Amino acid sequence: MKVLIVEDETGLLELIVRYLKREGYVCETAATFAEGYRKANNFDYDCALVDLNLPGGDGLRLVRMLRQENTQTGIIIISARDSVEERVRGLEEGGDDYLVKPFHLSELNARIKAVMRRKTGEFSKAMTFGGLVINLDERSVSAGGAMLKLTKKEFDILLYLARNKNRVVTKDSIAEHLWGDYMDEAASFDFIYAHVKNLRKKLAAHGYGDFLKTIYGIGYKFEVG
Amino acid sequence: MEYWPASALRAAPGKNIGMELWIALLGGVLAGALAGWAVFRWQARRLWRNLGGIKLQRPGEQLAAAGAPLLRPAIEQLNLLLQQMRQEYQATKQFTQDASHELQTPLAVIKAHIELLLQSPRLGEQEAEALGGILRNVNRLSRLNSALILLSKIDNQRFPDVETVDIGLLLREILENFEDLIGLQKIEVECSLPSGLKFSMSASLAEILLANLVQNAIRHNLRGGFIRARLEGRRLEITNPGKVLEGPTDTLFERFKRDPDSEEGLGLGLSIVQRICKLYGLGLQYLHREGLHTLLIDFPNPAPANSG
Hints:
Shape of chain B: elongated
Largest sheet of chain A: 5 strands, parallel
Helix content of chain B: 40-55%
Number of strands of chain A: 14
Structural class of chain B: alpha+beta
Number of helices of chain A: 8
Strand order of the largest sheet of chain B: 2-4-5-7-6
Radius of gyration of chain B: 32 Å
CATH topology of the largest domain in chain A: Rossmann fold
Helix content of chain A: 40-55%
Strand order of the largest sheet of chain A: 2-1-3-6-7
Oligomer: heterodimer
Strand content of chain A: 15-25%
Order of helices and strands of chain A: EHEHEEEHEHEHEEEEHEHHEE
CATH superfamily of the largest domain in chain A: Response regulator
CATH architecture of the largest domain in chain B: 2-Layer Sandwich
Distance between the termini of chain B: 50 Å
Shape of chain A: elongated
């Protein structure tokens, strides 16, 4: 999959590229409006991450252009502007999702997969790890053919970890993913701990408990071979 | 104004006439003083009326000198002073906002670095633990910064998404969203939140306001405690049992006031609540009795529609 990343903060840009390359994506970058414009004009991308505040022009114009060129491109706006109007405008101009800075790389990664699934079906209806199947349309999970009874939040945690498989996902990233910004840290960590424990118990009952690793003090990892 | 040339007195032919003159003089002085005082009162009243009618809450407002011409120079000076203060205050506000915004990017870069470092297969347990510590504090910094940005945005009234919000309905939704968290702490929720109280305000601020109240009631609750949320008429009441607060309660809404025993809160939640209430003219009170903490919010009647 080919991804265009337009972001003027080069430090952040480089880190995004490093994170996404591990997913096997081919990453093209641009640090200015002009560069972004040229690349968006000359090449086709499966997905584009566009910052709105760019030297030389408004990122929204890039979004509009990318959308006109190709309706299949997944476009995610990444911006420090967080007002409701900005978000609405970004989506109206053709963005598929809007992620407010600062964000977790694991959140960005999960959003890319969600957008690509909606756009192209490239990430299919189900994620399969051996005998463990996460069915995205029905929001259900089966292990070795048996359906698991998961709560909504348990499913969300599992899906988030699976979308970041083989990576350490921090607790606060999970907390933000589940509840958004205004969440109490200590309380939400207790909650996540309790739910991962239940989730692991349910997976272990079918012999899949090893998928969920605890990284002490930091977070969790969904580990598959 | 009562000037009598001395020669006129001396030239007076008789004692009686001199006496009359003295009386006339005294009367003149008195009448003058009375008249002067009356004019002063009249002017002063007009000025007070003027001053009393002015609410200097709206930005850019000035004192009017129209009714009191004598006081115009003083009022103009005052206006100049007000304008200067306003400009300086604006500059300070702008600085706070810019500073917080500038902090966002380096914070994002630090977070991203840590997230990448955590993926390294060579990471030992000690290193991972140290990174976890750094991450926790960066996150705290980041949340603190977001809260400060929010506060400065409330002060700058940057929330145009005004809607008619159903307070009872919204609070029920928020309680539902926190349901699992409330359940985990074995807190009972008793609510009587009928729909129907509609208030015109920014939808996002309404959500922030109510979510902060609910979080506050969860955070400062006792394990196995309860949250009682009641909406009666135009008054919202949220009560929870909790530790007795030490010290005066009137500083409760100040920034960075928080429970010294708990490390969780940023100390900005109630400050945000207070700012939102002030912005929309909501009455906010805190009551404490026998281990019960209650926050009361009174929603004012909507302003009558302009018939003009």
